[in-house]
Structures are given as C-alpha cells and as structure tokens.
Write a structure and sequence with these properties.
mainly alpha, single chain, 2 strands
C-alpha cells in the first residue's frame, strides 16, 4: 500500500459516515462468499436477461448504485434543503427521509466511480449553495463530510481547488461553532491539502485558492481557538493534525510557509492548552497515560514545533513557553523510548526523532530539563547506525555541554545514565570539541561527581590523542 492509499484509508476509517465492519445485508454477513444462501442463488431466467442488462447499464461503475437513483437523491436534496436555511428561533430537525438521502450520498461519495458521477452533475455547486445558507448543524456536518469523501480522489481535489468561492466559504466556516461539523471541516481541509503538503522540495504552489484563502491571520486565529477551547477530543486531535499539515505548506513567496501565521507565542500557548485537554486525567503524572491517539497527536505537535522553527519569530514563540514545551517533549520522548522494539522500527520514528532533536537543541541550552536530556542520551544510543539522526543528537550534546551555567546540571543527569550511554555522549563532545570534554572533566572534579564519569571522560581523552 503506497503512502496516498494509506492516507485515504486513515481518512475513511476516521469518518463518522463509515458503517460498522460487521454490518449484515438481508441476514447474510457482508463479504461472506461461502454463504449457503449465495451458493444456492438461482440463475437469472432468459426472459429477464434483457431487463438485467438495462439495469446494469444504469449502474455507476462497479457499484450497486444506479445513476437514476443518485440523481433522484440529488433532486430531492435540492428541493428540500431551503427549508433548513431559514432564520428560525429554533433549529428545524431534519426530515428522516431527507437525512437518509444525504447520508447515503455521504457514504457513497468515497467510491471513485460515484465521485466522478457526482462531480459531473455539479455536486460542488449544490454543496456550496447549502453550506452558505445552512442553519442546521447536522446538515452542515453531512455536506462537509461529502466534500471530504470526494476529496479522497485526486481528480476531485483538483476540481475543488479550482472553486474559489467554495474554498473561501470553507475557510470562513472555521468560525462555525458546531463541533461535529468542525471535525468534518478540518478533515476535509487536510484532505484537500494533500497535494500541497507533498510538493517536491523547491516546488512552489502558484495561484492556489486554498493557500490564498488560508493565508490570513483570521483563519489561523480560528483554528487555534478550536484547539484551545474545544472539549471534543476528536476535534482537538483533528485540528492539531490539520495544523501540522498547514505549517509545512509553502507560500508563493520563496522561503515562506503557512506556518508564519502560527509563529507567535499565543499560538504556541493554544497548542499547549489543547494538549492538556487531550492528555489529562493521568494515573502516572500530571498528564495523560498515552494511548495511540495521544501518541499520534503529540508526535504531530513536535512536528509543528519543528515547522515553526522554519519561520521568522518561530523560535522565539517556542522559547516563550519553554518550560511547558519541555514537559510534553519529555512525555512523548519517554513514551517512544519505552517501546521494546524501538531499534527495529527506528525508521518509523525517524522524522519524530529529527524534529524532537531540533526542538531540544533550541530549548535545552537555555532552559535545561533533566528528563529531556536523559531521553536524548538514550536516543543517541538507539540511533547508532542511522547517521543523520546520530549527528543531530551529537550536536545537541555539544550544545548543552557548551551552554553557560548548564554543565553541572548536565553532569548530574549523566550520573544517572548507563555507562555506555554516557560514553557515547562524551565521545560526541570530544569529536566536536576535545577542549570542551576536558572542561567537563574539570567540572566533575570540582563537584565531586562519581569516579565512573571521570574514568569514562579520561579514557576518551587518552584515546583522542
């Protein structure tokens, strides 16, 4: 399965419109080709074959949906939706038959052949008309969900990207207040930005309406408000994942990213507030016991911080909340290090290690955190043989060792580490700056630290002559 297929699978599994895997049809378990009921299914009588061919001719691709039936659903939606766009004191509840039609379109929109058919019949124009006037949160949620499913196909993404007025409405909808609708919105934006997020290095997007609409402080403010204020865990997860996509999207101006609109202390503080919400109620610490979702969102958060370092003012914004940032860096790094087979799956965490090393290199020399350094030392041991990761961590060791007023704290931390890890740390420092290791040895003697550390440092200095 290639990367895009994997991503589409992730999107559809997350979508609320998906049915249960164990769904049955007419009492027969879906996908069970060995069912006795199927095995004894009679053949079609000759006199009905002509009618069957007509029915097949009306089918959309290889699906069970007919063109006539889908068009009927679209016409019903077109006639009915104005009822839910009126300014009433109370939100009008959706008619059950109408809701069923919309949900069916939502479900089937993930199919490639159905997507082509819906796009051919101007589904985007209908959706734009509905969401621009809609006063019903459930209808809004379903419309946004349909676009998200359509966007799983590359051709549809290109057509959506050409709809300037639709994209402007979607960007403005980030100010909407219904959590379920916002979940679909942030998912569809992330989906539609797939191609921009994965541009080749040096490739700059030109005349893209998504970039044009999202490159505004008002959009970034809306997204950060969602992250810091929502009590819906799924929404916070998805909003942070969208932000991780946004910060790496290149702007037409060379060398700039959409991340510039999030490179401020307020945005970093909002991110931290969102992390506290999704990782609260811990039995082990002040924060959450990490499950797979929290692990994923913390890894995305580290990637966001790395992306902010590529923007002007980004580093200053991260430093403004150094202490809190380091708490979460320690939390996720410790969690990753607890994996029994980390060395075997190091490639899976390669990007995370690169990003977290950059963030620690930014913060540790000025805002020392014992736990983060201990984790970095252990990581250095784990990445031996992966040169670009090893080199980054070695530079981190040198930066911390050379920082003013940090040496005593660094050595105190190293005294709690395993000897092989300490040796790798000292070797990295000696390789970059032998005099710096000599200085650390003198500091060890001054603070009466363990002979074990002194012996390791002396042996390395002797061997480096």
């Amino acid at each position: 399965m290639d990367e895009e297929q994997s991503w589409v699978k992730e999107y559809t599994e997350a979508s609320d419109s998906e049915g249960d895997a164990g769904e049955t049809k007419n009492g027969i378990e879906a996908g069970d080709n060995n069912s006795p009921a199927l095995a004894c299914n009679p053949s079609v009588p000759e006199e009905m074959e002509a009618d069957l061919e007509k029915i097949k001719g009306d089918m959309i691709g290889d699906t069970v949906y007919t063109e006539r039936w889908v068009l009927k659903c679209l016409m019903n939606i077109t006639k009915k939706f104005p009822e839910y766009c009126k300014e009433d004191e109370e939100v009008k509840e959706l008619d059950s038959a109408f809701e069923e039609d919309v949900c069916t379109i939502w479900d089937m929109a993930i199919d490639k052949d159905v997507t082509k058919f819906l796009m051919k019949h101007n589904i985007l124009n209908l959706i734009e008309a509905i969401i621009s006037e809609c006063k019903n949160p459930r209808l809004m949620e379903m419309m946004l969900g349909i676009i998200g499913n359509l966007g799983c196909q590359s051709e549809a993404r290109r057509e959506i990207a050409a709809q300037k007025s639709l994209i402007a409405i979607l960007a403005a909808t980030l100010e909407y207040t219904d959590a379920r609708s916002l979940i679909q919105l942030v998912r569809l934006i992330k989906t539609c930005l797939w191609d921009l997020r994965n541009l080749e290095a040096g490739e700059i997007p030109k005349d893209n309406f998504w970039v044009e609409s999202l490159a505004h402080q008002s959009c970034s403010d809306s997204l950060m408000f969602i992250i810091k204020s929502s009590c819906d865990e799924d929404l916070v997860f998805d909003a942070i994942k969208l932000l991780e996509t946004l910060v790496f999207i290149r702007l037409p101006k060379e060398g700039e990213f959409l991340g510039k609109y999030f490179a401020n202390a307020e945005a970093v503080a909002s991110l931290l507030e969102g992390l506290r919400e999704v990782s609260s109620s811990s039995e082990k610490s002040d924060f959450g016991v990490i499950n797979r979702n929290v692990e994923d969102v913390l890894i995305k958060w580290v990637s966001i911080l790395y992306g902010l370092t590529l923007c002007a003012n980004g580093e200053a914004a991260i430093r403004a909340h150094a202490e809190s940032n380091l708490v979460f860096v320690h939390l996720i790094t410790t969690h990753v290090l607890e994996k029994e087979n980390l060395k075997e799956c190091i490639d899976e965490y390669s990007d995370f290690i690169m990003c977290v090393t950059t963030v620690m290199n930014l913060l540790l020399p000025t805002d020392f955190h014992e736990g983060c350094l201990a984790s970095a030392v252990t990581l250095l041991d784990k990445v031996q043989g992966v040169d670009h990761l090893r080199e980054g961590l070695e530079k981190l060791m040198v930066s911390v060792a050379a920082a003013e007023g940090v040496q005593a704290s660094m050595l105190s931390t190293l005294s709690q580490c395993h000897a092989p890890e300490v040796e790798l740390c000292f070797l990295a420092i000696s390789k970059q700056d032998r005099a710096l290791l000599t200085q650390l040895l003198a500091e060890l003697k001054c603070i009466n630290k363990t002979d074990r550390l002194c012996e390791i440092a002396k042996n390395i200095l002797k061997g480096s002559h």
